[in-house]
Every structure is written in structure tokens, then in C-alpha cells.
Design brief:
Residues 610-631 have a biased composition (Basic residues). With 645 residues, the protein is mostly helical. It contains 29 helices and no strands. Helix 11 (222-246) packs parallel to helix 15 and helix 14 runs parallel beside helix 16 (324-341). It is globular. The protein starts with a helix and ends in a 23-residue tail after the last helix.
Length: 645
């Protein structure tokens, strides 16, 4: 420990020998447990855990600052051009290898360590030296690969810290790693989107976080990002075209194809199952967020039209009530594109066609469980016929249709734009039998008609358009704007109610540490605490990850005794409605008064049960092993009712 302290003091005084010695110790700590095959450093052959912890923590905290001063580089940050000029200097030729040793050993630690807290701390500290990777192309490629892995697979703070490292590489290093990062981060995002039929709330939040990271990375350089986005969106269009050709109209198909075997049907099912897959749906949502987030950039605006065509084709691929969740997601994406780009997209037809299907007009078979349409991609046939599914669909139709019309509630052509939706909504109100659905539609119709009158009053005294539509839109004074605000609050209340009744598993995957946008001094203090905690563990005892001891499944005998007493099964006694009523009165504290007519009352059920038990005992005595269990019929619940004459 004294030797390490002397090295640390020498490093602070910028002594070259101390820097080389502590970097050599750092290398031994990163490769701890491996066979080196040489004895070039006998002083470091045996090191305790506390010594290695101190070496790791000191190097990760101070080495970037020390090497920058030694090489004559800027104290913080930098660009690729600065590093290329620095590589021509004498100081780099003398001491540039020290930076390579530091970065290479830190990379080995990131790829080989299993503790997530230690990896996150290492990535965060090495991030300050990201610009120096421009001088080492082979190390740069390895770092990008390792960071993409920790971003996609990590938990806790690791995805956020890894993404910030990748972002700094794209900004500081530039084109040398930008294309690799754009391709790699999209592929890593696809791997995380391979999910089952349903998705939990925590997993959906985690995927949303990954999508925000991809959008942030693609917004750094719109020109180069446009080429990658065009290729990936085109791939989605090719997959959709294959599904549409398999499920084309019957008149176009050949007669031989109609009479084909089951293999062709399976191929058709596989073709549209590729579309109705979480991976495909989340890719559409990703590119929707990218186009909407970069709508101000001229490079991304041409991608809005092909993306809209693909989303509309996905929504209309299988017009079945089982795939209403996918259609609602598509409608939501189209509304986002229309609002971001300021272009009109005919969304109302997708929503109004759903109201004309028999599943939403007919009488439901039962109540059913609450359905969250944005956590599933399809529902089963039994759920389609339930009342809960009808309510969820109709409320979602009202919400999305109101949002669509609200985008154009200040347009001078709102009257013509809302004419067909009003006609179809009125026809739905006439045919629907449920009063609660009729009331929802009438409220929406009333607000649309009020907005029509609002626009008409503005059109009277002007020649072309409202005098100042921008200020009126900021004030949110149209009837539809106020109505959508109330609908949004109601929808949020319904989602909160669904979240309360459901159990979310794996919430830690979407829980991240504090943002790294705080002051640098406060962050350094936190890093010191995290570093001491991370490297104070007994991680040197074994090379393998310690196994967690399994919990003893055996319970103490006292618990078993209590369980047997509590779980004792009593004989089931069936009672009639009259007995239930008497029991309720007794529970309420009812005491019969003397002189009532209930003194000589004999319960017919109790007499009937006594006779039945007596018969069973006699039969069991005669045939103790061959008797049959009494069948539970309606006669067991009480005396038979008299037939009506």
C-alpha cells in the first residue's frame, strides 16, 4: 500500500516513472486472474484486494487529467482535428503509448467484468477520454461494439452512460464512427424488440427509452442519417409489399392459387404475421418519432410520405376486430406525423370503419376483463365479444378522432373536413343500442358541431382565412380543443386504473440513475462515492461470479402447524335463500322476541339433510368399499319446489 501511495503522489507531480508504474498496476488489476506467462513485474505478482481497489479508483479518476497535461491536449473535450495535430507533436511520440495502455485496459475491464455498477462507473470515467480514440482506429471499433452491447443489454445506469459515450464519440470523432454507430444502434434496438404477444409496462418504457436514444443519435447529422433511415424504411415497405401480394383481392389471384394446399395458406399467414409483430410495430414507431422529432430538418421531411403510406397499409392489412390494437397504434402514429409536419392525413376513415363492424355494434356475451389496447398486438376471439373490449375500442375511437379533428379545428376548411365524419357518427348513434356509447358519440358530435359554428363565425367577416389563427390556436379557445383536453384526462385516468390493477414485473429495467446534466463538481463527488462503493467489494476472491445461496425452502415446524390449523377443510353445508336471510339478520344483531310465531318453526332444509345423511350412513354400512359418492344435483340444495299447476 505504501508503494501505491508513493506512485499516486508521483502521478500528481507528473513523474513519468510513477505514471508508468501505476498504469502497469492498473493493467494487472484489469487482467486479474489471467495467466500472463511472464514475471516481468514481480512487485505486482501478489496484490491484495484493497491495493487493487485503490489502483483502479485512482487511475479511473485522475488518469485522463494527468495524460492531457502530459500530452499538451485541451483540459476537456476536443475534436478529431485537435488530436490529428497532436499526433504530430514530440510529446505524443514520447508518451502517446500511455494513453493507448489506459484505454485498452479499460476496454478489457468493460468487456470482461460482470458487475454492472463497476462497468457503469468505468464507462462514465473513460468517457472523458473518448476523443483520443480517434488516434487508435482498432480500439475505436472495439469500443463501439462494446458500448452498443452494454447499451442494449445493460440495466440500471449502464444504458444511459453507454449512450452518452456513444454520443460523444459521434460528435467528437465524427465520420470515422458515425455510420457504424447508426447501423449498430438500430440493429441493437431490433434485438430488444423481439417480444411475445403481450408486453409489460416496464418493458415498454425501456423500449421507449432506447427509441429516444436512437432518435437523438440520428438527429446529430441529418444528411448521413437520412441515407440510413431511407434504407431501413424501404426494408419495412418491402416486407409490407410481400404481405399485401399474399393477401390481395380474390379477383387478382389465380384459380390454381385458390385451390392450393395448406402450405400456401401457411405462407400467407407467415407473411402478415411478420407485419403484426412487435419488432415491426416498434420500428414504425421509431421512425415516426425520428421523422416527427426532425421535422424541422429539410432532409427528413421527404421521408414522411413513404412512412405514412406504410403505416396506412399496415392498418388496413387485416380488417379484423382482433387486430384493433395495431390499428389504434397506426392511427396514433399518423396523428403524430400530421401534427409534426402540418399535412392533412385522412385518419378518420380508419376509425369510422371500426364503428361499422359487428363486434362493436352487437350485444356482448359477457363483461370480460379490462383490456389495455396499447399493451397487446392482438386479442383472442373470446375477448372480442366482451363488453370491456367494446368500451375500450369505442373510447379509443372517440379519443383519436377528436385528436385528429382538433389538429384542424382552426382551419378555414373545417366545415368541409368534418362533414363526412359527422354523417357517419350520426348513423352510428341511430343503430347502436347501448346508451353509454350513444352518449359518448353525442358528446363528440355536439363538440364538432360547436366547432363548425365557431369556424363559420370566423369566416363571415374575412376573405380567405381567420385574422390571426396562430394566437387563437395558442389560446386553445376552440370547442374541440377544450373537449380533447377533457378526453385526455379521462384516458389518463383509465390507464392509471389499469396500471393499479396489473402487476408490473421487471420495473428495474426502465429505472435509470440521475441525469448526467448536473454540474460537473457535484457529479465528480458522486462518482467518488460510487467508485469507492463499486471497487470496495470482495471481487478478487474468485474469478467466477459468486453464486447466491439458495433460500431454504423448508419451513419451520411451527409454521407448518399453523398452516395445518388454518387450512383445515370443513364440511360444505349448502343453504337456501331463506337460511341466508336468517343468517344475515342474526349477524346484524337481530334477537327474536317472545311471543313471535317463530318459536315452533322447523327448518325443512335441516330435516331433509338429516334424512339424507341417515340414508348415506346405512348404505355405507352395507357396502363400505363399493358405494358411490352422492352426485351434486339441484336436489342437494334444498327441498324440491312444487310444480306449477
Amino acid at each position: 500500500m505504501e508503494m501505491v501511495d508513493s506512485w499516486c503522489n508521483g502521478v500528481e507531480n507528473e513523474k513519468i516513472g510513477s505514471i508508468r508504474s501505476i498504469l502497469q498496476a492498473f493493467r494487472r488489476a484489469c487482467h486479474y486472474g489471467e495467466d500472463h506467462g511472464d514475471n516481468s513485474t514481480p512487485k505486482l505478482s501478489v496484490m491484495s484486494g484493497s491495493v487493487l481497489d485503490k489502483v483502479m479508483h485512482f487511475v479511473l479518476k485522475h488518469m485522463d487529467k494527468v495524460l492531457r497535461q502530459l500530452l499538451g491536449a485541451p483540459s476537456y473535450g476536443g475534436k478529431k482535428e485537435v488530436i490529428s495535430e497532436l499526433m504530430l507533436s514530440k510529446s505524443w511520440k514520447r508518451h502517446g503509448n500511455l494513453m493507448r495502455i489506459y484505454l485498452a485496459n479499460a476496454l478489457h475491464m468493460i468487456t470482461e467484468m460482470t458487475d454492472e455498477q463497476m462497468i457503469a462507473f468505468t464507462v462514465h470515467r473513460v468517457r472523458a477520454s473518448a476523443v483520443f480514440l480517434a488516434a487508435f482506429p482498432s480500439l475505436l471499433r472495439k469500443y463501439v461494439k462494446a458500448l452498443l452491447h452494454t447499451w442494449a443489454r445493460g440495466r440500471g445506469a449502464m444504458p444511459l452512460v453507454s449512450f452518452m459515450f456513444l454520443r460523444d464519440l459521434c460528435i467528437q470523432v465524427g465520420s470515422d464512427c458515425l455510420d457504424t454507430c447508426l447501423k449498430g444502434i438500430y440493429k441493437a434496438y431490433l434485438v430488444n424488440c423481439k417480444l411475445s404477444k403481450s408486453i409489460s409496462g416496464s418493458k415498454q418504457q425501456h423500449i421507449q427509452f432506447l427509441g429516444n436514444c436512437v432518435r437523438e443519435l440520428y438527429s446529430l447529422d441529418p444528411q448521413s442519417a437520412y441515407q440510413h433511415a431511407f434504407v431501413f424504411i424501404r426494408q419495412l415497405g418491402v416486407i409490407l409489399r410481400g404481405a399485401l401480394t399474399e393477401r390481395g383481392p380474390k379477383s387478382v389471384k389465380d384459380k390454381r392459387q385458390k385451390e392450393s394446399s395448406k402450405s400456401s395458406k401457411k405462407q400467407a399467414e407467415k407473411s402478415y404475421q411478420k407485419i403484426y409483430d412487435w419488432q415491426y410495430i416498434f420500428c414504425l414507431e421509431l421512425w415516426t418519432s425520428v421523422v416527427c422529432g426532425c421535422s424541422s430538418e429539410e432532409e427528413f421531411r421527404p421521408l414522411a410520405y413513404p412512412l405514412t403510406q406504410i403505416i396506412h397499409g399496415v392498418a388496413c392489412l387485416v380488417p379484423s376486430a382482433r387486430y384493433f390494437p395495431v390499428r389504434f397504434r397506426c392511427v396514433r402514429m399518423l396523428n403524430c406525423i400530421a401534427e409534426a409536419t402540418g399535412t392533412f392525413i385522412p385518419v378518420s376513415s380508419l376509425l369510422l370503419d371500426m364503428l361499422e363492424m359487428k363486434e362493436l355494434r352487437g350485444r356482448p356475451d359477457g363483461v370480460g376483463k379490462a383490456v389495455n389496447l396499447f399493451s397487446v398486438k392482438q386479442v383472442d376471439k373470446k375477448t372480442v365479444k366482451t363488453r370491456a373490449f367494446q368500451e375500450a375500442c369505442i373510447y379509443s375511437v372517440v379519443d383519436e378522432l377528436a385528436k385528429h379533428l382538433t389538429q384542424w379545428s382552426y382551419s378555414i376548411a373545417f366545415f368541409e373536413m368534418s362533414f363526412i365524419p359527422l354523417v357517419r357518427l350520426r348513423s352510428f348513434c341511430k343503430t347502436i343500442k347501448a346508451d353509454r356509447f350513444r352518449k359518448e358519440m353525442k358528446d363528440l358530435i355536439y363538440q364538432i358541431e360547436a366547432n363548425v359554428e365557431f369556424i363559420k363565425s370566423k369566416r363571415v367577416g374575412i376573405a380567405f382565412s381567420p385574422n390571426d389563427p396562430a394566437t387563437e390556436k395558442e389560446e386553445r379557445c376552440s370547442p374541440l380543443s377544450k373537449f380533447v383536453a377533457t378526453l385526455h384526462q379521462r384516458a389518463q385516468d383509465r390507464m392509471d386504473a389499469l396500471d393499479e390493477t396489473s402487476v408490473i414485473v421487471g420495473a428495474e429495467s426502465s429505472t435509470f440513475s440521475r441525469r448526467l446534466s448536473e454540474a460537473q463538481k457535484q457529479q465528480d463527488e458522486q462518482d467518488d462515492d460510487e467508485g469507492t462503493i463499486a471497487f470496495s467489494k470482495n471481487w478478487l476472491s474468485e474469478n467466477k461470479k459468486p453464486k447466491t445461496p439458495k433460500e431454504d425452502k423448508k419451513r419451520p415446524r411451527e409454521d407448518d402447524d399453523v398452516a395445518t390449523e388454518e387450512d383445515r377443510v370443513e364440511d360444505l353445508v349448502l343453504s337456501s335463500d331463506e337460511e341466508d336471510g336468517n343468517n344475515e339478520e342474526a349477524d346484524d344483531g337481530f334477537v327474536p322476541v317472545e311471543g313471535d310465531s317463530d318459536e315452533d318453526f322447523v327448518d325443512p332444509d335441516s330435516e331433509y339433510k338429516k334424512q339424507k345423511k341417515a340414508k348415506l350412513k346405512k348404505r355405507n354400512k352395507r357396502q363400505p368399499f363399493l358405494h358411490k359418492a352422492p352426485s351434486r344435483t339441484k336436489s342437494n340444495s334444498g327441498p324440491k319446489k312444487k310444480a306449477r299447476h
